[in-house]
Amino acid sequence: MKKYDEISKKEVYICNCCGQMIASVDECDRAAFLDVSKAWGYFSKWDGCIHRFQLCENCYGKMIQTWCYLPDEEEQTEWI
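Below the sequence we write its predicted structure tokens.
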């Protein structure tokens, strides 16, 4: 989640799972975290809602270990 940090005087990303600061918004392109935004459609439990959350690498790793099937993985050959 985004939150204003009184100490650094910057907007920062906080891991929604563990609550640790991930990165400041202006340096988020250099940080490693999962950024999710989901607009729920008709007939879903959250019809018309948009959910947004961020997970740090550790929490993402713990989360996928609970899944029946791990996410598909491929090597990235070009870096921006």
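Helices lie at 57-64.
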